[in-house]
Structure formats: structure tokens, C-alpha cells
Amino acid sequence: MSSNHKKSEPFDAYGAIARVYDRLNAEIDYAAWANFVEACFSRYLPNKPELLLDLACGTGSMTLELFRRGYDMIGVDGSADMLSVAYERAAEKNIAGALFLLQDMRTFELYGTVGAVTCCLDSINYLLDEQDIRRTFANVHNYLDPNGLFLFDVNSPYKFEQIYGDNAYILEDELIDEDGNVQAVYCGWQNHYDRETGICTFDLSLFEEREDGGFDRSDEQQNERCYSREQLHKLLEQTGFELLGCFGDWDFSEPQENCERYYFVARAKK
């Protein structure tokens, strides 16, 4: 067994698991999530936007789902490994036209404004201090059309305390290459949640089977910080947004005490 330890930068923390990221998150229904995005457009915008930014787009699941629905899409992510998978997926599905950019979510630059910005799968939680969130929100505001929408989600305090906590998890899956060969993949991680700082540390190890039956191991560490609804509402107001709603699910329901994720919808005031 060989080992390749990688110390990740804050916005490039998916080097080891980029290839299996979608398999490990197979339960995410991006079509239903995109339905919610479009429902927000219908509810809060007078006209359907044409150009969208998918911030921290990862492997491009939401980017490509919205592109298939007729939107012009820009995907921005800080991980070259994740964007590489996004490019491969677009090519496999014969999707041409979505633009992917390797940029930091706090300092990204576009050629002009967009009608709406999505930021999915708790990417905001990877910003570990309020100043970074303020910078990101201000940058999003800068590149939104007047009254454009900003849609993002975060993991809730309940999820940090009860689901993450100091728990350990192991996931296993199989990958099939273009020649039909089956490769076993195991991903294990140990969590540590510091309730004083609100930061949860994830120590991940990925084991990928080789042709000779051995396994290659890759290790990396990720961190997320827990934010309250009140903190994020305040930061949105400070950066020129009007909070239109914070929901516990895609049906626009109010968050419950055991809700694992908050969905924010904000309007850029200009």
C-alpha cells in the first residue's frame, strides 16, 4: 500500500476525493434542487434570468443541470481537481457552452454581471471567518444585476452538533472504468467539532484499489465552520442584500429544530 499525503489549501480541499465525490454524494437530487432554484426565480424575479453563476461549483452537477434547462452558465471553483471532473462530465454528455473558471470564491472576477448566483452544498461553511464571508458576499453583490438573486445553503447547527460532532464514518463504493474493470474505493473520515470556535475538522482517508489488488491511500483534511441564521442575515445586510427567506427544505418551509440544512435566498439591492 502506497501513501500520498496532501495538505489541502482552504479552497482546494478536494484533491484526493474529486474523482469519487459524486459517488459519495449520490443521494443529492440535483434535479429537485434545480426545481427549487427555478421556483425561487418564479417567486422573486419579474423575469427569468438568462446568465447564472454557480459559485463553488465543484464537479459541475448543478452547473450542468441548469445549463440543460436553458441557462447560460458560469461555474467557478477553487479546486483544479474538481473542475477537471466537471470538464470530463461535460465532455461525456456532449455539453458544450458552460464556462468553468478556476478562481477563489472570495475574489473571483467575471466579465460582467449575472442575473443570479447559486452556491450549493454548504460551500459557505468552508469560509472559516466572518471576514471571508463578508468578502465573498460583497463580491457576489458586485457581480449581480440590480435585484439579482443569491441562493446558497449552509449546514445547520443541529448537523454540526448531532451529525458531524466527533463521529467517524466509512463509505465504500465501486468504480467501473471504460474497459469494464471494477475498482473498489473506500473513504473514511473522523470528525472533530470544537463547539467554542464552531469549526469542525474532517480527517479523510481514501483507499483506491490498484490492478494488482493493493490499495493507494490519499489523506487530506477539510474544515467547516458553523454559522447561525442570525450571523448570516447580518452579513448579508452588511454587503447590500435583502434577505427574502431562509428555508428548511425545497418546499419553502420554515427551518425546524432538527433541520440539517438552511437554504437562503437574498436580493441584491442596487
What number of domains?
2
Q: If you average the pLDDT, what whole number results? A: 89
Strand order of the largest sheet: 4-3-2-5-6-12-11
Characterize the main sheet.
7 strands, mixed
- Proportion of helical residues: 25-40%
Distance between the termini: 57 Å
Outline the structure in words.
It is a single chain. The chain is of the alpha/beta class. It has two domains: 181 residues, Rossmann fold (3-Layer(aba) Sandwich), CATH 3.40.50; 65 residues, S-adenosyl-L-methionine-dependent methyltransferases (N-terminal domain of TfIIb, Single Sheet), CATH 2.20.25. It is built from seven helices and twelve strands. Strand 8 and strand 9 form a beta hairpin. The protein is globular and about 60 Å long. The N terminus is likely disordered.
Summarize the structure.
The protein has 270 residues and is of the alpha/beta class. Helices cover 26% and strands 36% of the residues.
Draw up the topology in text.
Layout: E1 2-5, H1 21-24, H2 30-44, E2 51-55, H3 61-68, E3 72-77, H4 80-92, E4 99-102, E5 114-119, H5 130-142, E6 144-155, H6 157-164, E7 168-176, E8 182-194, E9 199-209, E10 215-225, H7 229-238, E11 241-247, E12 261-268
Parallel strand pairs: 1-10, 2-3, 2-5, 3-4, 5-6
Antiparallel strand pairs: 6-12, 7-8, 8-9, 9-10, 11-12
Helix pairs in contact: 2-3
